[in-house]
Specification:
By secondary structure, this protein is of the alpha/beta class.
């Protein structure tokens, strides 16, 4: 912002809109002066009372056994009062301890930008704290405009969150809510306020709260350990025996060995855009091939999914495209046990258990031939059993086990996953969610459910989990002896530098763990994503920094390419990442090549890979 523009905005606030200027509390004046000239800010939550008396605007709630709070004074240039909240351990949900603000004093129109600002810190002497927050409405159903989550230190930090209203919000419907039941902790909150900004605000000029987490440092101890784990778990040393077409050894020959693909799966959820015949769609298909080696295709049952004739046709066309282009494909999700993800035909049977089960069985029988036809050999059978309990309240967990058995009988070669959210996220401290998922898997296995893989979602807010803290969680679920897959990854933040670093660190930590088999992003193209800020490709079709970082990992750091020469027996020792390779050499004036696979099984058997160059 130029000096003139800043002066003009201050003059507008002070002269042309004196009512608004008089309401601006001290902790917002400098901040508002930095907003773009076209922002037209209006204060809709907060005010002088938040910073001066503390008696109005914010309040803590929760059972007395889980929380306590008090207003305290502080010598700070921007505010004189803050609210201190102490939360105990033992809560079931993060929202069992809440801090909430007043609701919006003015309506918000569809397209308006909404900006939240507040000051947070871990209480002095407590070390650190965590907050999981949303700018949200609760009726007619819960919806979040913006994420207000972070790892906190003992230094006051201004948290800034931004979102665009997707619908109209009448007066009194929108507020700021901080979920604080994230283990025992004490934190301080001051100066909460929310501004409504004009739809055409130059949002790229708005300030951003930097992402931070333990283990960010370049020399953090976990990095050396991860490097060792990757070398141990993702690479192998084998002997290549190179033969000519007639079977004789190719001795003393120069060859090039290049990795073509990874054994590890770097995937994405795909969008129906790939079915279109537009320039945008062609770019989308190019990015899909360039960045990923596996895809997850939708098979939702709801009235907006499989139950809809047109959408079912899209599902089939997407699966066909992936099959024709030789991209391994997962299906998500066969059964989503909440009424919000169910066709109304099924919901209507909720009072008739036998009929309900029969209709689900019929759906399974309809989908399995589709999966077989298009070579979809891995699928999430059921999703989010902890929160989506509508079905199990009717049929019980034993019927879920029966559904797994039914799928397995009809499609025994398919790899059947279970999938759940909030296991790796929110700082890694979701103990209740982790325990519930662990026990659910144990119960289903005891009931005979043929579960072949464990899915762990990863929809991260700015309250990211430190990389080293991911390993104990993965270790625990690895006890089942089943492959672990990150089924849905994204990081919803405006801080692209922080996003790039955490994407890189998350991929590194997960790739290092021996039980994991892949990481699937929940989309990659910003205009076609559930959480657009998590994209690799922006709305202009340009790779974001996190896209470049991912490519550097997969196609440079974790990539093997070598120039070598065979010995007198036609052999070469190769150390490389597991995956698909091509060896090329020129013999008798003719270039010859052949592909081969470097697998963990070959390494473990201390075997020799015989490659006949044609």
């Amino acid at each position: 912002m130029t000096i003139f523009n800043r002066w003009l905005l201050l003059w507008l606030l002070a002269v042309m809109t004196p009512a608004f200027a008089n309401k601006i509390p001290p902790y917002l004046k400098d901040f508002v002066a930095q907003l773009p000239a076209n922002a037209e800010p209006q204060l809709i939550i907060g005010g002088l009372a938040n910073g001066e008396t503390g008696a109005v605007g914010m309040r803590a709630s929760g059972a007395d056994t889980l929380q306590s709070s008090e207003w305290l004074t502080v010598d700070h240039p921007l505010f004189s009062h803050f609210l201190r909240i102490h939360s105990e351990s033992g809560a079931v949900n993060p929202w069992d301890v809440l801090l909430q603000t007043d609701k919006n004093s003015k309506p918000v129109k569809k397209g308006d930008w909404v900006l939240a600002s507040l000051y947070l810190r871990a209480a002095p002497g407590s070390g650190e704290a965590k907050v999981l927050g949303y700018l949200e409405r609760n009726e007619p159903e819960w919806h979040s405009i913006a994420d207000v989550s972070a790892n906190l230190t003992e230094q006051w930090t201004q948290m800034i969150a931004l979102g665009q209203a997707e619908t109209d919000y009448p007066k009194g419907s929108l507020g700021l809510s901080l979920h604080l039941a994230l283990g025992e902790q004490t934190l301080d909150v001051a100066g909460a306020a929310i501004l409504r900004l004009a739809p055409d605000t130059a949002i790229e000029q708005l300030p951003i709260t930097a992402l931070r987490y333990n283990g960010m440092d370049k020399d953090a101890a976990w990095r050396a350990r991860a490097e060792q784990m990757i070398a141990q778990n993702r690479t192998g040393t084998v002997t290549l025996q190179l033969l000519s077409a007639d079977g004789s050894p190719l001795t003393q020959q120069n060859v090039t060995i290049e990795q073509l693909d990874h054994d590890y799966q770097f995937g994405t959820f795909v969008n129906p855009l790939l079915l279109q015949k537009t320039r945008e769609a062609e770019h989308y298909k190019h990015w899909l091939k360039e960045y990923f080696n596996v895809a997850t295709t939708p098979i939702y049952w709801a009235d907006w999914g499989w139950a809809n004739t047109e959408r079912r046709a899209d599902y089939k066309a997407m699966a066909s495209y992936l099959q024709r282009n030789h991209m391994p494909t997962r299906g998500h999700v066969l059964l989503y046990p909440g009424f919000g993800f169910s066709p109304q035909e099924l919901v209507a049977l909720k009072d008739d258990r036998a009929a309900f089960i029969a209709r689900v069985n019929k759906h399974i029988d309809e989908v399995i031939p589709f999966l077989k036809r298009y070579g979809i050999k891995e699928l999430d059978v059921i999703n989010e059993l902890r929160h989506e309990k509508d079905w199990t309240d009717i049929v019980g967990l034993d019927t879920v086990a029966d559904w797994y058995k039914r799928v397995h009988r009809q499609y025994p070669e398919a790899v059947l996953y279970i999938n759940e959210n909030s296991i790796l996220t929110d700082g890694g401290d979701n103990q209740f969610q982790q325990d519930h998922y662990y026990q659910t898997i144990k119960k289903l296995q005891a009931l005979g459910a043929p579960i072949n893989g464990i899915g762990l979602q990863g929809h991260f807010s700015s309250l990211v989990t430190p990389p080293e803290k991911l390993w104990p969680i993965l270790d625990r679920f690895a006890e089942f002896g089943l492959p672990l897959r990150i089924t849905e990854y994204d990081l919803n933040t405006r801080d692209q530098a922080g996003q790039t670093q955490y994407d890189r660190d998350f991929y590194t930590a997960v790739f290092a763990h021996p039980a994991t088999v892949g990481i699937t992003r929940w989309g990659f193209y910003q205009p076609k994503m559930w959480r657009p800020l998590g994209a690799l490709i922006d709305a202009k079709g340009e790779p974001k920094p996190n896209a470049l970082a991912q490519q550097n990992l997969v196609k440079n750091i974790w990539h093997t390419q070598a120039q070598s020469r065979t010995d007198d027996a036609g052999r070469i020792e190769l150390k490389g990442f597991y995956g698909r390779y091509r060896v090329t050499g020129e013999f008798d004036g003719v270039e010859r090549s052949q592909e081969f696979l470097l697998k963990r099984e070959v390494k473990d058997a201390a075997g020799v890979i015989v490659v006949r160059l044609q």
